[in-house]
Amino acid sequence: MVPRDNTCMANKVDPFREEFAKFLEQPSRERLRDVLKNHYGELPNLDFKAQWPERAGLVKDILGLGNSGGGCLVIGVCENNQAFEVTGLPACKDKADVDNEIRRFLPQALMDTLQPMDFRFQAAEYPKLVGKSFQVLIVPDNPGNLPYLALAETTGLKNTVVYVRRMASTAEATYEELQGVINRRLATGHSTQNEIDLNGHLKELGALHVQLGLFRMSYPSINDPWGSSGHVRIGDTVRQIETFGDFLKKMIVAKQERIKQILEH
Q: Residue 129 CA to chain centroid, in angstroms?
């Protein structure tokens, strides 16, 4: 086992981060060997697992990494009393099985970037790896698509929260963490036309509701808060006109339908 040595952690972590960054950039058997040999515990973007997590936990970890700058899961490393042991896996899990377990819960933009890999060490300079197998799931950093949320719920997984990495674990984002995720997206300058349209329609819907509130305050005695229709004579023609309340009602319904169309596409 490799114990955590807090007294010299500061001097050792930075070189290890560099080794880990190289592995993420160009994954290889040799670079994984260096990561497993020289690591000093988990990092926010490096998560060790003895076995593949159950579905909800796996989806949360992927979302957390995706929302926090990317990273990877290394399967086959066991934590015991704050120490990590490279135990390996008895057999590599079929990548198709992993895909089938998580696909309906992850956004397509995230799912399509995942990189599952198998690594087997028949011989190695680091004796503890000889004869052992490991699997790695790399989650690339793609801030232009943030934030990532689960598409569906299951036990232990919510589709209404943003998951992030906090220290060496996955957690629901606080307000400050959510702002950080959104700011990373904004910093890319990436906005789809649908997003631009959606923001505009949401602002307009808010303005319509403000007007509705003012209308209700102006006519508190009207039983129907939308007002009632009237008639106006234009020359020899009498036409029915709608009150401002009637108009607001129609515009709010129309705006809600437009927003719904954008969200469904």
A: 33
pLDDT value of residue 2: 42
Cβ-proximal residues to 87 (8 Å cutoff; 6+ apart), any chain: 50, 76, 77, 78, 132
Which sequence spans correspond to the domains of the chain?
2-187, 193-264
| CA 207 – CA 185 distance, rounded (Å) | 26
Q: What is the spatial distance between Cα 63 and Cα 165, in angstroms, rounded to a whole number?
A: 9
The most confident of 6-10, 161-165, 259-263, by mean pLDDT: 161-165
* Helix segments in 113-232, DSSP class H: 175-187, 193-218
∠ CA 87-168-4, rounded to 5°: 60
- pLDDT mean across residues, the chain: 82
At position 17, the amino acid (one-letter code) is R
pTM for this one? 0.68
* Residue 236: Cβ within 10 Å count: 5
Residue 59's H or E segment, with its range, is: helix 55-66
**pLDDT given at position 7:** 43
φ, ψ at 248 (rounded to 5°): -60, -40
Fold of domain 2-187: 3.30.950
Rounded Cα gap, residues 208 and 219, in angstroms: 17
Strand order across the 132-139 sheet: 46-49, 71-75, 132-139, 115-121
Is a pLDDT exceeding 90 seen at residue 132?
yes
Burial of residue 95 (number of CB atoms within 10 Å: 0-12, 13-18, 19+): middle
Give which of 53, 94, 95, 96 is closest to 73, Cα–Cα: 53
